[in-house]
Batch of 3 targets.
Target 1
Amino acid sequence: MKKALAVTLAMLMVAAFAFASGSGEAGQSITLMQNKPEIDAMLQEYGAAWSAETGIDITIKSVGGSSGTSLGQQLRADYAAGEMPDIFVIAGLEDYREWESVILDLSGEPWTDETSVAFTVDGTVYGFPVAVEGWGMAYNADVLEAAGVDPASLTNYDAYREAFETIDAMKGQLGLDSVVSMAASADMGWVTAHHNFNSLLSNGLPYGDLSVTNALLAGDVDARRLSEYADWVELLFEYADPAVLTTGNYDAQVGAFATGKAAFLHQGNWTDPNMEAANATFEMAFAPHGSMARDTDGIFVAAPSFYVINAESENIEAAKQFLNDMVFTQAGQEFMVNEAGMIPAYANVELNPSGQLSRSVQQWAAQGKVYSWNQYYFSGDFRDQTLAPIYNRFATGQIDRDEFVDLMTQAFENRED
């Protein structure tokens, strides 16, 4: 992982940066389906430029966010209709298992030599890492300074409770609507049952440690760890704007922080383009999650998703070229880093993102203070259909903290997928 996350990157391995102009066959076209609506405009623009240079038409379809339709749902519908895209996204092992029969072996592709975070199964490469991403609790450093809160102290539950109480008492003076911008509506389950859920799974554990994850997959619940985690969820919900928490979409949640109306944001570095669009000039960075009583000094960093190629596609070579061009051409690298604001997962890419949150992720990673992303060891259906409604009921006051613990415990003990 160090190779992909190192601040000092290796020299470029290719001398020419231009697309392989005109290399596509006349009339050839590919379709890419991805799950990051926040970069849709940038990807559409890059795809159009790539098509103009290569002669290969590409259609970009972005699914997810606040659209109400998950990528998995759309892929299943397209597969049933015989319209499976040539390139699509998987998030991890559970997604791979679902689509294993149509995912192409990409071992030996040129880009595989430039990353240490490709998606592999039993030594075979199947997934092209889209980027390296991370999240903790994003904070407005200017607000924290005005409130007398040291972000370096935010390493456990008690420290966060004290900070939240302090800032909440100063909301009017600081121009805030809420302390935390947090969303837990029915359409934002990926914030709670994907990202926040990972605090339970990996916070405070060595990178790659699956002990808690495997125990929960087996229905064995660590009652103390879950209890501390429930306190953390309750704290976030308590100090969130009720409207954003219960009905807010992605734009509402991110916008509250970007416009200086919330001191903290429960999102990751993928929001950098939103910060730029909102002209957010205040200092910002990440602090760890406070989901435990003891100190934890790190944030969650990994390759969040992977492009895979449909093995049944009639345009496999064109799909392969699209992925390689993203890594080995100047235009591809510019798109990844300067347009989409992503942290590149490839050692040959010398560019670094300008976004403050991405730079914070790189700083945490450079210090080795990172925790795994383990949420994708659970199926999408379990996270979205079983866990997400429990968080939503907690956020809307339909259940209290103890009932949240009980329902989460039952969910793990009765999990069937």
Target 2
Amino acid sequence: MRITNAMLSSRAVTDLQGNYAAMARAQEQVSSAKRLNRPSDNPADVQAAIKLNETIAALGQNLRNIDAADRQTATAETALAGGGDAIQRLKELALAAANGTLSAADRTTMLAEVQQLSGELVSLANSKVGDDYVFSGHKTGTTPYASAAAAYAGDHGAINARISPGVSLAVNVTADNAFGPALAATNQLAADLAAGTAPSAATLGALDAGLDALLNARSQIGAVSNRLSATRDFLTASQDAAAAMLSKLVDADMASVITEAATRQATYQAAISVNAKILQKSLINEL
């Protein structure tokens, strides 16, 4: 078979195109700092990278859900702690008012502080995060208590946060369970004092029940907060591990790709020079 100048030219162009493409890929990796820039670079690794990106995105959403739930539980915990302090003071006032040496006028004087504490309990029960009431169940746009004497206006819906794949956690308590007994006891104490009588044993018992309800709700929210914290730590570690795996798949080894790019460029330049000489001599021979 006779090797013609046209055949040499065609082969030279094909080889140069291959060398140029390899050089261009190496230079692209240097400029992008990425080993994978398009699906054709390595289809299997690109598919794995897509799945890792999806995993990282899902974990990120779970972490955002936890952050939102954490804001709610932090607000709830603060409100419940404040409610506990208020009911403790109400118990002190009730015990003082039960002293047989106090007059009806003395007890009427105490009533002003009881009413102030009653208003504080209502305000705490109506705590909000942004525009949403924390203790209204699903009725987050509804004020739980219009006043200490009013009925609870929310519902008993659980606010569930999706904190990890396939796992949801109820992150709320409702005001009627947490604050309702304390408000009822406060109303009862206010009625006793307004009448100028010593608080009854039933009133003192109701105040104890109100404190227990607040403590139980606070304990429940504390357990939720601990679960959120532990889950956040686990998800953050998982996200970091997935990001490290993704980086290993996608990111270029800069020292390696810089060396390869320089080598490819040198090879391409040498191929141009050698092919130019060969083709020139072949053309002379043809002539």
Target 3
Amino acid sequence: MILDRYIFRLWLGPFLGGLGMVLGVLLLGRALKLMSNFSESGQAWDLIGQLLFLTLPYFLLLTVPMAFFLSMQNTITSLQQNSEMDALRASGVSYIRMFRSLFLVAALLWAGLSYTSMVWLPQGQLGFNNILMQAYALKGAIAFSPQRFTKGLDDITVYVDGEDDQGVYHGVILEDRRAGVPVVYTSRSARFSSSGQNLELQMQDGVRMEGMGADQRLLAFDSYKVNIPISTGQVRKQSVSDHVILMPPAMLWSEVKKGDSPLAAAEWGRRLLLPTTVFVLCFFALSLSLSQKRSGKAGSLIIGIALLVALYNIQLLLHRQVSQGVFPAWSMWTGQAGMLLMGMFLWLRAEQDRLPKIITGTGEWFYLMHQAVMGMLAQRKGKQPD
């Protein structure tokens, strides 16, 4: 128990500090963006505060596994640099026994993140979208929030990945159900403009998909225009049945069981798999942190950040492919399971002191590269005239 408390204390400080710093940066960035949209409103600060609170579940799902992993890496490298790990290993203490307190922490974080993903996240999405649509309605304009499904118009759902300074949206998905048959448009970029009682969408480089299953028809286009009738009365409050990302667990599972909604299957998989990322990273932490003592912590942390980027991009890619019906739903689970098995395999090799040289030598490579750069800088400084 003394060892467990000691390891936990080493881990806790960096975890809380890192989590607070990353969350602060993300919330500040979102606050600055919201201020540019609502700074003229008399209730700007109250509105921004509500919106930031409603985005907290999404940010927590991203940042808590990151902070846990990087803090665990910092703990392992600190123990190794101080030769404490060598002493424990010489006493017959396995890595599993050494870090069992962190496995318990990972289980507790998984439980909390699972509740956040299943319950708090859709509630936050619904509240965020409704407040945002009300705010834009008061401004007399319709806009779309990046990386969120917006359904403020009857039978129309819009998703945009981002917006540039010229008002052009990128990564656009539009689902049109006005004709009774679902029509989905995806495009690399698009521009929205209001024309009288119509919202005009000019899309570039995309695909138009109409129908479902074997009756689905595809049309690739370089340029495509869609006109959407709008009026002030059409902007309405959203409900949980409007889109799968807003549904509570029971309603979402009912949609998944129908078997005809790739979006529902992708959303169900995302909510279940995101919290498990903390276990995947837990098993990778040991193998990516063991390096020669003179290499320091920098090399291990750089490898860890590279793993985070790769893991989250794999999850995002698989989610998009499943939601568009390109990949089956089980591909998301296969990707996550593959990463988990790889992490467990590397942990086992670390227990046997048989880690691949490409991993153990990476920290040394960063050390040598750092020394070479410092040497060149010293030579240049020495050659400069007084």
